[in-house]
Amino acid sequence: IVDRLNQDELRYVISTGDLTNNGTREELLRFQQELEGLDVPFYSTVGNHEVPGPENWHELFGPFSGFFVQNGVAVSLVDSSNATIDPDLHTRMIEFADANIGAPHLFLTHVPLLDQSGFRAGAFRSRNEAARVIQELSARSVDAIFFGHVHSYYAFSLGDVPSYSS
């Protein structure tokens, strides 16, 4: 995969998590070693598969969440590995979005806000929280939302924001 990614003209790679099966130190070290061949920066939020041993992730990759501007694009990597967003993280998420209104903005989190298929129960624990986050991202003109977790590809819209699961 790394060799294939290096063939494209990429500026960076971003991920919604589940980089390993069980989040063991050995799995994360192997993934980190494989990334050494990637020609561009790699950014990721954590998936539910990495949280059984969170200290491994923190030691090797840093925080579960991050907010930054890369090549003029605002990027929010938000931990939802527990099918919710911590209230303090939620505050940081909104502050970053407010500070970057008008800039292209990509929002990535692991667990989908809502179950796209209606069959998997692969979404936030609270539909009320999901609706609030969708409304907040839409009001701040976020350009796209990306999810992982369900191991299937879906393209859809949440509010007026193009959204993707893969």
Strand content: 15-25%
Structural class: alpha/beta
What is the number of E strands? 8
> For the report, how would you describe the main beta sheet?
6 strands, mixed
Helix and strand run:
HEHEHEEHEHEEE
Low-confidence parts: none
Q: Order of strands in the sheet with the most strands? A: 3-4-5-6-8-7
Shape, principal axes of CA atoms: globular
Structural write-up:
- With 166 residues, the chain is α/β, with parallel strands linked by helices.
- 31% of the residues lie in helices and 22% in strands.
- The strands form two sheets. Strands 3-4-5-6-8-7 form a six-stranded mixed sheet, covered by helices on one side.
- The chain is globular, with a radius of gyration of 15 Å.
What's the SSE blueprint?
Layout: H1 2-7, E1 13-15, H2 25-35, E2 42-44, H3 54-61, E3 66-70, E4 73-78, H4 87-99, E5 105-109, H5 127-139, E6 144-147, E7 154-158, E8 161-165
Parallel strand pairs: 1-2, 4-5, 5-6, 6-8
Antiparallel strand pairs: 3-4, 7-8
